[in-house]
Amino acid sequence: MTVRRVMGIETEYGILQPGRPLANPMLLSSHVVAVHAATRESGRAKARWDYDDEDPLHDARGFHLQRASAHPSLLTDDPAKPAPSGDGPQELARASVEEYEDPGAANVILTNGARLYVDHAHPEYSSPEVTNPRDAVLWDRAGERVMLASVRALASTSALPDVALYKNNVDGKGATYGMHENYLVERAVPWADLAARLIPFLVTRQVYTGAGRVGLGQRGEQAGFQLSQRADYMEAEIGLETTLRRPIVNTRDEPHADPERWRRLHVIIGDATMLEVATYLRLGTTSLVLWLIERAVAEGGAGGAGGALAAVDRLALRDPVQAVHLISHDVTLTTRVELVDGRQLTALEVQRAYLDAVRVALEHAGAELDDQTRDVLDRWDSVLTRLANDPASCAREVEWLAKLRLLEGMRRRDRLPWDHPRLAAVDLQWSDLRPERGLYHRLAAAGAVERLVAEEDVARAELHPPRDTRAYFRGEAVARYGPEISAASWDSVVFDVVGSPTLQRVPMRDPLRGTAAHVEALLDRSPDASSLLAHLGAG
Amino acid sequence: MAGQDQIRPHRDDAEPDDAPDAPAAPSTQARDAEVDALLDEIDDVLESNAEQFVRGFVQKGGQ
Lengths: 539, 63
Fold this sequence. Notes:
heterodimer, A: alpha+beta, 8-stranded mixed beta sheet, 17 helices, B: mainly alpha, 2 helices, about 0% strand, elongated, Pup_deamidase (chain A), hydrolase (chain A), hydrolase activity (chain A), EC 3.5.1.119 (chain A)
């Protein structure tokens, strides 16, 4: 009954070779990944992504895992079994010929448990699984440092092209690329109910999660400013697609075994955000709403969670897709959207209703709140109140307001219309990862935005995994036994120990096993992979 | 690229603050010194040829 749950963030970064707009983005992206492997993971770069899973859907398998979030699906819950997986290592036959590696399929498993790879024509950082929104911020920021390190390494290597990376979601010409959130959700909640109860929340949360965008329409056909980068690309309510007819709620990546307890919710509507508070609130509030839905279903009946569920059900929107666009296009936050029951509410009122419902349910549950849950609730309340009464006061926390503040200042000073290229340049350069170029970084350096995490903690998160999920085992295994790892994925690590007749695959089916508490002592007792495998029971 | 988009920001620091502003979002009505200082800094790092930079920012679609 808290904000805590297994979650993670995937981010596709915008990529440019400065001065060369026609440079091949796939090639540039693979340089970003490869240079990381060369400079940071030397000697342990050989691990490929492990696509060998028990998933019977063979055709879908590669795609599924390639897109896999920070926390899949296969979960066992048997505390009697040895860490990290509940199962011992499995023997795998070695390939008789060297497996073909597509150089374009650049892929690195990082010592912090994340995955760095090329997705479509963008470098992508998929964060390790974390258990709370503050850690989500920490390992998301760590991803910025990973990407920046590649930018620096390429800049210092004359034989390789320079790149600039942008943590944004649109190019203003019609292309969009994603920031996807993943949440582990109890399987007992029927999918249709989960989607229906979540959609009005996801449609309206952009008032405090939006990154802001110069231009209206998918190609920026109209001059102006809107709350969200992604809003104009949302074209359906629910669906499988992520690249065409993008849905608000995505149904891809159903768990492929033991689905009785969990599912992975894949949310693709959100914007990548530079502001730490924006990221924190996005993950924190969404997790609380998921808790409410889970709780209410567990209690059953229309009166679930003290009546909170019925209040949420009344928030169903007449046209959610249109509402996403309308809300994003109104910086005054006064637009009303129509509900199925005939009411006309603003986005702030819909959000307030969700907050009230969460509070009712928490009170009904009668449990003590942990500090982070209380903090998310307080901030959520505060930001909704101030967005209604004094939006300027939110410019340190809400990204679209921080960006708009700069843009309006420039418009006023230089008398620029909204279609002036300098304003579009501000929007793009806002998220340049290089501190000397990125405009967000100028604000951060000037103390004009609120920070949640200390830079030394981010630096540690760049190299080290969270201690309380299976990312700990993955990251530590790569750090300690990298040369003896032939492949890894979210739910497995495959060891290739010299002298062993077979590969050894360690499954990690439960995101909450393989933690430091489970395996740190074991790892400390294992100077090499073969002793680790012996301790895990391979003998 | 001769001289395109070489609009330099004109500083009207001497101007009183009551210059007529276009109606702005409520969030940004107040002129604030912090923004003015940030804008000065940003002038130094913003792409000098904004139009060319924006036109060249072309991405392939992702997810």
